[in-house]
């Protein structure tokens, strides 16, 4: 059974290749993150915002190819989770024919983002996510420690960037404000996690 879900958040940081999107079931509380590449994250963000470029980007090109061949992207299904890697399938309708194409979830979501294509997750994927979640107290604390340490590294990297005269000379005020806001959000999360760890650990 495929469960309807929606894309609820995109977390983009320039400090690394891995970005995060969050999928949540529409009629329930379950949700989970998927790590994706920076290019796919930016593509999803741009397509959701309707950003246009002089020439079609990769996902715009693929959408145009499907449409030109008489097809319609009917739905996207995140249909498997193997060794911590998610898999998806594009369901393309052309006339009376249903064509299924394997895809990375990030590419599938970027393709369907501008078309408001329905998004689903297979029930067994939700089950696999639940079974893969940390179950012991120490496992949960270890995940919190890893997240705290990663935030500390990202905060330091951003602060170094904002202290770099060359970067300051090239960046506009909007970029600087965005980085400062990002530091503040990460700092608040870091402090919250640190407080929890001090209380529990």
Describe this structure in words.
With 201 residues, this protein is of the alpha+beta class. The chain contains seven helices and seven strands. The chain has two domains: 2-132, Roll (Bifunctional nuclease domain), CATH 3.10.690.10; 137-200. It has a seven-stranded mixed sheet. The model has no long low-confidence stretch (mean pLDDT 84).
Helix/sheet category: alpha+beta
What is the count of structural domains? 2
Query: What Rg, in angstroms, do the CA atoms define?
Result: 20 Å
Molecular shape? flat
CATH topology of the largest domain: Bifunctional nuclease domain
Strand percentage lies at: 25-35%
How would you spell out the order of helices and strands? EEEHHEEEHEHHHH
Q: Total number of helical segments?
A: 7
CATH homologous superfamily title of the largest domain: Bifunctional nuclease domain
Number of strands: 7
**CATH class label of the largest domain:** Alpha Beta
**Helix percentage:** 40-55%
Notable characteristics:
201 residues, alpha+beta, Bifunctional nuclease domain, seven-stranded mixed sheet
What's the layout of helices and strands?
Elements: E1 2-11, E2 18-25, E3 31-37, H1 38-49, H2 58-68, E4 72-82, E5 85-94, E6 97-103, H3 105-113, E7 119-122, H4 123-132, H5 137-162, H6 165-170, H7 173-200
Parallel strand pairs: 4-7
Antiparallel strand pairs: 1-2, 1-7, 2-3, 4-5, 5-6
Brief overview, please?
The chain is of the alpha+beta class and 201 residues long. It has seven helices and seven strands. α1 packs parallel to α3 (105-113) and α2 (58-68) crosses α3 (105-113).
